[in-house]
Amino acid sequence: MPLFWRVVLTNGLVFVVGTLVLAFSPATVSQRVRTTEAAVLAVGLLVIVGVNAVLLRSLLRPLDRLTATMREIDLRSPGLRLDDQGRGPAAALVEGFNEMLDRLERERSATRAHALSAQEAERQRIAQELHDEVGQSLTVVLLGLKQARDRATDPEVVATVETLQETTRSALEEVRRISQRLRPGLLEDLGLLNSLASLATELTETAGIPVAKGFGPGLPTLGPETELVVYRVAQEALTNVARHARATSVHLGLTRRGGSLVLRVADDGRGPRPGGHVEGSGIQGMRERALLVGGSLRVGRQEGGGTEVVLVVPVEES
Ligand SMILES: Nc1ncnc2c1ncn2[C@@H]1O[C@H](COP(=O)(O)OP(=O)(O)OP(=O)(O)O)[C@@H](O)[C@H]1O
Ligand SMILES: [Mg+2]
Known about the structure:
Elements: H1 3-24, H2 35-72, H3 91-151, H4 155-182, H5 185-190, H6 192-207, E1 211-215, H7 224-245, E2 250-257, E3 260-267, H8 281-292, E4 296-301, E5 307-314
Parallel strand pairs: 1-2
Antiparallel strand pairs: 2-3, 3-5, 4-5
Helix pairs in contact: 1-2, 3-4, 3-8, 6-7, 7-8
C-alpha cells in the first residue's frame, strides 16, 4: 500500500477511535468550557497526538534506516545494496533504489571501460609516434654525426661531435624508454612476469631502489585485459614508490590465493600520510582498473611501516 494511504489510514483510525470514545463517554463540554472539562480535553488531545506519533514512528522508522544506508553508498566500491524491508512502506523504495544502483553501476563500469580503453589507445598512438617520428629523426642525426666524426680532423671538432653523439644516443634511449612505458608491447612479447621484472629493473636503475621479486608458483594464465590491469597497477605503484616513499627496498609479489590473483607492492618508506592520504589520479586510476576486471585495490600502511598496495583479481579456476 502506498505510504500516503498508510498515513491517512493510521491518522483516520486514531481520529475514529477518539471520536467513538468521546461519543460513548459521559463527558460533556459546556458552552463556556469549565476548568475540569479543559483538563479532560487536554489529556484526550495528548493521548490522540501520542498514539498517532507512536503509530507513525513505527511506520516511518525503516525510512530513516534507508536514508542512513543510502548515505554510505559509494559507487567506487560497488556491491552494497539496501536490505530487503519485507512488505513495509519502504519495500517499494528499496526495490527502486536497488534497481537504480544496478543501472548506475552498469553504466559506470561501461563508461570506465570506455575511458580506460580510450586512454590505452591514445598511449599507443603517442608511443608509436614517438618511436616512429622522434626515434627515426634521432637515428638520422646519429648517422650524420657518425659521418661528421669520421671526416673531422680537428681534435676539438672531434670532441664536440663525440659529445653530441653521446647526448643523441641517450636522447634516443630516453625516447625508447618513454615509448616502452606508454605501450607495454613487452607484455605481449615477454609475458606478464618478464614485464613486471623489467619494471622492477627499471626502478632499480632509475631510483636506485632494489626490488625483491616474489612470483608464486601455479600462477594462472590471464586474459590480456587482466594482464594489462596487473601491469599498469604495478607500474603506478612502483612509480609512487620512486616518487613519494623514500624507500630503501621494495617487494613486488604476484601470487595465487585460492580463486584470486594477488599483486602486492610493499615498500619500507615513510608510509602513507597519517590520517589517510589524499588519493590522486594515480591511486584512483589503479582502483578503476581493478574494478574493470572485477577486482579490488587496497592502499595502506603495512605492518612495520611503509606503504602497501594490494590488488586482488578473481581468476578462473583451472
Ligand atoms: N609508496 C608511497 N609512499 C608514501 N606515500 C605515497 C605512496 N604512494 C602514494 N603516496 C601518497 O599518496 C598520494 C597520492 O598518490 P597518487 O599516485 O594517487 O598521486 P600522485 O602520485 O601524487 O600523482 P599522479 O596522479 O601523477 O600519480 C601521493 O601524493 C603520496 O603523498
Ligand atoms: Mg602516482
